[in-house]
Write a structure and sequence with these properties.
- The chain is α/β, with parallel strands linked by helices and 391 residues long.
- Helix content is 36%, strand content 22%.
- It has 16 helices and 17 strands.
- A 7-stranded mixed sheet has the order 4-12-11-10-9-5-8, with helices on both faces.
- A hairpin with a 3-residue loop joins strand 6 and strand 7.
- The relative contact order is 0.16.
């Protein structure tokens, strides 16, 4: 293969996620629903009214309709969307906490993927970090002692990708809201993934919803669009209109604004949240809600079509998880294809699958290659059969 062909082959392409991690950070995070993907295609393959008001015939805002959807879904006063949640945090702090102290619990001074740290985002925004409490225990009195005339924001950060258990204590946002009435400090809650539905309704782990934060009168809430929400990459900011309006006037918003494709994907995803049936059709929920019987049937169908005499397959229990810094303790019962070979090592099989025409990303455990079926879609079945037969 010539150098040009090699370069062309090194492109972003569709892969099959056999890891069981539903929101896989390295594999594009949340998968868009077919409805949303078709909507993006229909609109972006022609001109659109992104910044044109069809009623007045004049220039419009790309945020108007999206803001209305978010207000209707969450009950917030106002909303704003930027290109990711790190941008959300930056814009909030730069607008409301510039040259002020940002009070954060030591137990919430997190580092997210790619070595981005809360402390450094605060500093880049022009604010000053003021840590209160300890790693495992932070009390309301710590926030009280940490408040002075220089304090601008109480920042509550969701510990998205880890848990602190045992001898612990933390201050809830509603307690900070009460304290803020006395101190005139803005309460900001970075929810990380952001959940718009009651997860327990679907038999999953309870997670604080965006609507709960809004009802508790938190001034500003922000979260990601491409994790538990199930849309494309975006940072969503909700809350009090007087604060959102200030962010809309911040010149940095131009640098952080969301592009048309992400905006259309987010709009389509949010529309699905107005119907319980459509929520279940979002790929993140489809994957999480598959039954063991459905997964076993899929596994048996694949196994029946394997005609590679060197390959042995067992269908056994495996665990799936949400991933993407979401619900770190939530494991979902699943089924996996456990693959071994008479002549090849697990590493050989994993590499063969990964380098196939449609790459299959699997996991290795105890010298077995595992393809978790929770994150497998109908269109993946024939590709998996072909790849296993070609090992």
């Amino acid at each position: 293969m010539c150098n040009l062909e090699k370069q062309v082959s090194k492109k972003v392409k569709r892969v099959i996620n056999g890891t069981g991690v539903i929101v896989h950070t390295n594999l594009g995070r949340a998968v868009l629903s077919e409805y949303v993907a078709q909507n993006v295609y229909d609109i972006t393959t022609g001109y659109n009214n992104l910044e044109f008001n069809l009623e007045t015939g004049k220039r419009g805002s790309r945020m108007d309709y999206l803001e209305k959807l978010l207000v209707d879904l969450t009950g917030c006063e106002s909303a704003l969307v930027v290109n990711n949640n790190a941008s959300s945090v930056y814009l909030i702090l730069n607008t409301l906490g510039y040259d002020k102290e940002i009070v954060v619990s030591r137990g919430e001074m997190v580092e997210i993927g790619g070595s981005f740290r809360v402390s450094e985002i605060v500093e880049k925004s022009g604010g000053y970090v003021k840590e209160v409490g300890t790693t495992n225990k932070t009390k309301l009195k710590d926030y009280e002692k940490g408040t002075n005339e220089e304090t601008g924001i109480y920042l509550k950060v969701h510990r998205s990708n880890f848990k602190i258990i045992g001898f612990t204590e933390e201050v809830e946002s509603k307690q900070l809201v009460e304290l803020a009435k006395e101190t005139d400090v803005v309460v900001v809650e970075d929810m990380g993934s952001g959940v718009l539905v009651d997860m327990e309704k679907y038999g999953l782990q309870k997670e604080r919803t965006v609507q709960e934060a809004i009802k508790e009168n938190v001034d500003i809430v922000c979260f990601s669009g491409d994790k538990l929400l199930g849309g494309g990459q975006a940072g969503i900011i909700l809350g009090k209109k007087k604060y959102i309006d200030k962010m809309k006037e911040n010149q940095m918003l131009r640098c952080l604004r969301v592009d048309k494709m992400s905006l259309i994907a987010l709009e389509g995803t949010l529309k699905q949240y107005f119907s319980d049936d459509k929520i279940k059709k979002l790929p993140i929920f489809e994957s999480a809600l598959k039954t063991i019987d459905e997964l076993k049937a899929l596994g048996n169908n694949i196994k029946e079509e394997i005609n590679n005499n060197d390959i042995m397959i067992e269908i056994k229990e495996h665990l799936a998880m949400f991933g993407g810094g979401s619900l770190p303790e939530e494991s979902i019962k699943s089924i996996g294809l456990y693959i071994t070979s008479k002549t090849k090592t697990a590493n050989d099989i994993e590499k063969k699958l990964r380098n196939g025409e449609v790459p299959i990303i699997s996991v290795i455990k105890n010298n077995e290659v595992i393809i978790n079926l929770s994150t497998i879609f109908k269109k993946d079945k024939q590709c998996i059969i072909k790849s296993i037969n070609n090992i």
